[in-house]
Write a structure and sequence with these properties.
α2 runs parallel beside α3 and α3 runs parallel beside α4. The chain starts with a strand and ends with a strand. The chain is built from five helices and eight strands, in the order βαββαβαβαββαβ. It has a single domain, classed as Rossmann fold, CATH 3.40.50.720. The chain is globular. 30% of the residues lie in helices and 18% in strands. It is of the alpha/beta class.
C-alpha cells in the first residue's frame, strides 16, 4: 500500500489531495499546525509544522512520498523556501519522493514568454508567488539523488472557485493551460486526483507540471 504524508492538511489543496489519496486506498498521514475540523475516516491526522526538523523527520519515516501543500503567506511568508530546501535534503537522504504544490505565478504566459508573476500580477500576491518560484528554481538545481515534482495548478484554482468533480484534466508543462474560452481553472477534487495519479504512476520526475481543464 502506498503511504503518503501531506503537509498543509487543513488547506484547500492539501485537503483535496488527502481525500483523493484516501479514496484511492493510500495510507495517508495528514500534517497540520492546527486541528482539522472535518476529518476523513481512515486518515491519520497529526499536529506538526514544516518548519520543525523533528516534525519533518517524523513525516519522512515510513512514507513513500511527502507532499508540501503549504502556502507562503501570512506568518509563513519568507519561511517556506528554506523549510522546503531542508526537507528536500532530508527526503533525498531517506529515499522519499517529494512533491510541492506551488502557484500559477511561475508559469509562462506563452512558450518562451514572460512569467505570469511578471505580467501584471496583483501586487498583494507577488511575494507568495515569487517565493514559490524560488522553490522551483531550488528544486531544479538540487542534487540528482532527489526525486521531486512541482505542480502549478490552473490560474483560477482555489477555494474561491471550487468547481465540481469531472473526472478529467489536462496536463501541461511550464505554460499556463487555458480552455477555448481563455479560462484556466480546475476543481479541488480533480486537482487532488491529478496529484494522486502522479504519485501512483510517476510521469514527472524532477519536473514541474501544470493541470487544468
Amino acid at each position: 500500500m502506498t503511504h503518503i504524508t501531506v503537509f498543509g492538511a487543513s488547506g484547500y489543496a492539501g485537503s483535496h489531495i488527502i481525500e483523493a489519496a484516501a479514496v484511492r486506498g493510500f495510507e495517508v498521514t495528514a500534517v497540520s499546525r492546527g486541528e482539522v475540523a472535518e476529518q476523513i475516516a481512515g486518515v491519520d491526522y497529526v499536529r506538526g509544522s514544516l518548519l520543525s526538523a523533528e516534525d519533518r523527520a517524523k513525516a519522512l519515516h515510513g512514507t513513500d512520498a511527502v507532499v508540501v501543500a503549504v502556502s507562503a503567506r501570512g506568518d509563513m511568508l519568507g519561511q517556506v523556501r528554506d523549510a522546503i530546501a531542508a526537507l528536500a535534503g532530508e527526503a533525498a537522504a531517506s529515499g522519499v519522493r517529494l512533491g510541492v504544490i506551488g502557484g500559477a505565478g511561475s508559469l509562462r504566459v506563452a512558450e518562451g514568454g514572460a512569467r505570469i508573476v511578471d505580467s501584471g500580477f496583483p501586487e498583494e500576491f507577488k511575494p507568495e508567488a515569487l517565493e514559490m518560484a524560488d522553490v522551483l528554481d531550488d528544486l531544479r538545481g538540487s542534487h540528482e539523488g532527489l526525486d521531486w515534482f512541482f505542480v502549478s495548478p490552473a490560474g483560477d484554482f482555489g477555494s474561491f472557485n471550487p468547481g465540481e468533480f469531472r473526472g478529467e484534466y489536462r496536463v501541461g508543462g511550464d505554460v499556463l493551460l487555458v480552455d477555448e474560452q481563455g479560462k484556466s481553472d480546475i476543481s479541488g477534487a480533480d486537482f487532488g486526483v491529478a496529484i494522486v495519479d502522479e504519485i501512483e504512476q510517476p510521469q514527472h520526475r524532477r519536473k514541474r507540471f501544470t493541470v487544468a481543464y
